[in-house]
Design brief:
Length: 260
Amino acid sequence: MAVELEFSGPYALLTLNRPDALNALRFSMIDDIAKALDCIERSTARALIVTGAGDKAFCAGADIKELMDRDLTAHRNGVWLGQRTFSRLSTLRIPSVAVLHGYAFGGGLELAMACTFRIATEGARMGLPEVKLGLIPGYGGTQRLSRLVGEARATELVMSGRTINAAEAERWGLVNRTVGSSETAPSPIEIGKAFMSEFVGFSLCASLFAREAVQRGMSTTIAEGLNIEADLSTLAYCTSDATEGMSAFAEKRKPEFKDA
Ligand code: CAA
């Protein structure tokens, strides 16, 4: 299978598994990612880790050979498929991290940008090289990159097709952190598990509301963003997990959250 889904303890593990083509995304793989998201929504997983198989790449982008010689309707439908699927990923009930090793280009970087977080290994190389093909990003790249790194840097990257390394990506805020990539370094999945262990112990309600407040606030005014925060803060306050969390603090014990 070119997209594999497994479960390991609290983690769902989604692996792009087409290493001979640097995990380039065929449309059928995007369909499989959508099906995997359905499966994850029905599971008890509390975090998703997205990785690419093989040593060379997280994902080298959309499959260029498959993109060729399509009519405009087919092209538009392909773009919608990618956008719709990656938007679902960005609002998945549980947080997600993409662990980027080797190349993360084009649609691969767009997939990573739809995750809640991104971790890069030291040798990772990232970019949106579509302009070199006479194209522009189509799976959300122009929109998510500018929200992550700001207009100037996003415009530079999409208009030049330039490749950046992990250190630059971290400085820009494109990745949350960079980890070493020596032979003894942990695998991308282990890196993802270690990172996500910081997020899995809380109420899913509070995690979701927190992410939603940030996400929705990014595309509106500060006044509207503060309203969104007030509404979501009040909703969080109404959950039994909030009662449990505050009681546990007062009673000096560990909270037992029930995601309710
Ligand atoms: N689509 C299809 N096949 C790809 C691919 C892609 N995006 N990227 C790599 N491959 C294939 C190559 O064709 C090659 O296959 P063969 O052995 O059958 O020839 C194999 O993967 C290995 O690739 P290279 O030999 O090129 O490996 P390299 O180490 O010399 O170079 C690379 C690596 C710099 C990543 C280079 O492969 C490359 O530039 N790939 C294309 C990157 C790109 O332009 N991505 C954007 C795609 S468009 C897009 O994503 C649109 C969108 O917004 C949705």
